[in-house]
């Protein structure tokens, strides 16, 4: 009897270590690129809490351990971000950081593109202000 186990995006990206690296690089770019100062300004001076929450969210979102839900409950992303004025510019700054970080993680090119598109849709869903 052959087991038919489906591989999750969490496994495809490389699990915990890869997600930690992705989040580290994401916040490195957010903290260092002048063109992302708008989205950086929405964050606390110390990015440790944001880093931890994004790692935990991505872990579950990609099919790994539901760390965010275990600690904070349902993500309700739009509700959690409603206090921030997020427009297309902020979304694009966020995606610039994420795409740069994704490009530094070893993964299949098609998977990277699909992941980027899914994150783009998620980031677009956060928009709560007109351009």
UniProtKB/TrEMBL annotation:
Gene3D superfamilies linked: Globins
Family designation: Belongs to the truncated hemoglobin family. Group II subfamily.
Species of the source: Candidatus Methylobacter titanis
CDD domains recorded: TrHb2_PhHbO-like_O (cd14773)
Keywords: Heme, Iron, Metal-binding, Transport
Keyword tRNA processing part of the UniProt annotation: no
InterPro entries: GlbO/GLB3-like, Globin-like_sf, Globin/Proto, Hemoglobin_trunc
Pfam families the record matches: Bac_globin
Name under which the protein is recorded: Group II truncated hemoglobin
Taxonomic superkingdom: Bacteria
Molecular function in Gene Ontology: heme binding; metal ion binding; oxygen binding; oxygen carrier activity
